[in-house]
What does this fold into?
Amino acid sequence: DRTDIYLGEQRIATYLKRHPQLTRRALVNVTTPSGIPVTRTFPPRTPGDLDPGYKAENGIIHPIMHPGIWLSFGDVDGNDYWRLKAPVVFKGFIEPPTGDKASGSFLVRNQLLAEDGERVVCTEVSRYRFERVPEGILLRINALYGSDDHDFYFGDQEESGLAVRVASPLRVQGGNGTILNSRGERNGAAVWGHEAAWFDYSGTVTTGSGEQRRVGIMVVPDPDNPRPSWLHARDYGVVVTNPFPKQPQERRDPYVKTWVKRGEPYSLSYAILIHDRPADQPIDHDTVTNTLLRLFD
It folds into this structure.
């Protein structure tokens, strides 16, 4: 039901192929090379993952719906994968997981089924590539969505795109973290709704040896994605890099449909930096961004 990814002896992520509650695929329990968590524990634990002041869901905001790092959509042809109303089914590896001392990758096929659990809406073919870099771990996700049988559309739901749920100590609300985007704006209220070339959600943690480390997740969408991304950001720990138009007012029915023609896959690519630095030596976002953007050329 899962594939574990290791850097040496350290498990740095798990790709969930099947789960009794999480009906879409995700990377969970992602860490830095030294094992510092950067995504929230999945499943979450108490008391460490309790959200201050939140009374529903046993005090934890979306414990299953926000697993770690994932691609999902609130509306594909009228089906809601974000809220787990329609399933994404693992159909196998096109290329099995392989790796060496510097990098590892796999190519996976998933099917997005309709909410009835029967009709195939489209197929997802995604490559996940992990690479050891000086700042930590570089993860690249390249996803293709297509159908050889029919046209389909992506709606403009705000809960759509590549999402991260950071580890609880890294939250703005309930932790000591900061959301920063390429415009220089900080935290949920300032970041939400704005197009950005990148965002970084990071905070300071103290290791078992007492060292202060600045760790986090930086996401850079491919400039060649079909359109620029805007950010759906929350101080409680989630940011979604949304590649579809922003609705003038939130609703489930789409204002704008992005149509995908039969036999012409829709492509999305992202570079994700899992970074880990001494607290007094934060990463240079401009330099890192320029490096990551060259990967898309």
About this structure: The chain has a mean pLDDT of 96. The two ends are 35 Å apart (CA to CA). The chain is about 5% helix and 40% strand. The CA atoms of residues 138 and 251 lie 35 Å apart.
